[in-house]
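Query structure, 144 tokens:
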């Protein structure tokens, strides 16, 4: 299973924001869309970083309520780990586990085309396993 397959099933929309947006706004987007991270993009829409729930909690811990007025660029993770539509689910699980991230923007030629969360990967892997169990059950039952 590839990222392309996962995006085809879940859709390719990504919630983004500019780097100057404050954490109050980023928090509102996270709550409104019930997501775990917002991709920070430049004026052309190229990904520059990501602000996750964890980044917001860390900022609140360090700066208190004043963190909500901070710009996303002040707290975003700049070492943006990305994937492509050709990566496999196994690739993603390895990348996410080794880097301790839960969201991977999908990028093609510098352009943001989607985002994959750990939940997306786990759901697809579970669906795949359930389908395999069904096929095996049908195979065994046909042989009786």
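Result returned for the query:
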């Amino acid at each position: 299973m590839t990222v392309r397959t996962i995006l085809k099933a879940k859709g390719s929309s990504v919630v983004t924001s500019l780097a100057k947006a404050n954490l109050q706004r980023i928090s509102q987007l996270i709550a409104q869309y019930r997501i775990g991270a917002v991709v920070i993009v430049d004026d052309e829409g190229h990904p520059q970083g990501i602000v996750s729930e964890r980044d917001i909690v860390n900022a609140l811990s360090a700066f208190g309520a004043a963190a909500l007025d901070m710009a996303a660029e002040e707290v975003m993770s700049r070492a943006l780990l990305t994937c492509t539509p050709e990566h496999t689910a196994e690739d993603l699980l390895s990348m996410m586990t080794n880097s301790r991230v839960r969201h991977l923007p999908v990028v093609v030629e510098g352009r943001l085309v989607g985002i994959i969360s750990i939940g997306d990967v786990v759901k697809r892997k579970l669906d795949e396993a359930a389908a395999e169990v069904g096929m095996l059950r049908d195979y065994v039952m046909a042989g009786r």
